[in-house]
Design brief:
CATH topology: Rossmann fold
Strand order of the largest sheet: 2-3-1-4-5
Strand content: 5-15%
CATH class: Alpha Beta
Structural class: alpha/beta
Order of helices and strands: EHEHHEHEHHHEH
Radius of gyration: 16 Å
Number of strands: 5
Helix content: 40-55%
CATH superfamily: P-loop containing nucleotide triphosphate hydrolases
Distance between the termini: 21 Å
CATH architecture: 3-Layer(aba) Sandwich
Shape: globular
Largest sheet: 5 strands, parallel
């Protein structure tokens, strides 16, 4: 595991999972939102974003957290491992709402606790019908990769615990 993608519906905990995986493995962590967004809530131009991403995926090791559907295949071509957090819409909506007002390392601003982004929430509600089919099709196309699909947070947590235990055992030997 050297080049890792973490994808899934917004609010599902991709960044949290990615941070935990980074802490266990030491693999450098890249958040796509940090490549795309400025602190003033504006985006960089698409060519700038794509170049930043291209620079990252050239590296030997990385964990890249985020979707950005137009770049999933670009990352799938060069990754060796994929984690797809395939959680329910309710879990993702709750996750997106619960993180408002909290400082995060994966976003260059703090989401206003009183601000409701109805377009973003609608995207989450429609993720399974609109975005997930393309993700599944790409995962099937790149089935030679090590692919982990977690349906519940507990599965992801158990995986992280297992890999952490394996790493500790290896360092003790």
């Amino acid at each position: 595991m050297n080049r890792v993608m973490v994808i899934g519906c917004p609010g599902g905990g991709k960044s949290t999972f990615s941070r935990a995986l980074h802490e266990i493995t030491g693999i450098p962590l890249v958040h796509l939102d940090m490549l795309n967004w400025n602190a003033d809530k504006t985006t960089v131009g698409k060519p700038v974003f794509r170049q930043r991403l291209a620079d990252e995926i050239k590296k030997e090791r990385w964990i890249i957290d985020g979707n950005y559907g137009s770049t999933i295949e670009m990352r799938l071509k060069v990754c060796d491992t994929v984690f797809f957090l395939d959680y329910s819409v309710d879990v993702c909506l709750k996750g997106a709402l619960d993180r408002r007002g909290k400082e995060r390392t994966d976003l260059p601003w703090v989401e206003d606790v009183n601000e409701e982004d109805s377009e973003f929430l609608e995207f989450i509600k429609n993720y399974n019908e609109q975005s997930k089919p393309q993700v599944i099709a790409l995962l099937e196309k790149y089935a030679d990769k090590e692919i982990h699909i977690f349906k519940h947070r507990e599965e992801a947590e158990a995986f992280l615990k297992e890999i952490g235990n394996r790493r500790r055992t290896m360092t003790e030997v």
